[in-house]
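DM from R.C. (forwarded with permission)

"hey, sorry to bug you on a friday — could you get me a structure for this? deadline for the figure draft is monday and I only need the backbone to look sensible"
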Amino acid sequence: VKLVESGGGSVQSGGSLTLSCEASGSIDDIHALGWYRQPPGKEREWVASITKSGAATYRHTVEGRFTLSRDDAKNTIYLQMNMLTLEDTAVYLCDADGYYWGQGVQVTVSS
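My reply, with the result:
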């Protein structure tokens, strides 16, 4: 399974960004796709996941601000991030069942 992220960048506090993750390879047995992030100097933390059926769950600190969706025709998931704060600054990594990982994209939120 290969995961390729895109959409990272820099944004001011309160702004929005959308991350994409395209999955390829043997993905039929993948139960859930999602995102983790690793803030500077901190441990990696789970952000959100979405199952094959489309059920999404979120870290409590992003719920209501982030929306995770999937387009099965494109084997892609999207993380719409709104009302970004300085604490959202991190490398965001796409994951498949917590086993396969993308290379990560940087999201930087400035004041």
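R.C.: lifesaver. DSSP finds no helices and eleven strands in the chain.
me: no worries. Residues 22 and 76 are 4 Å apart (CA to CA).
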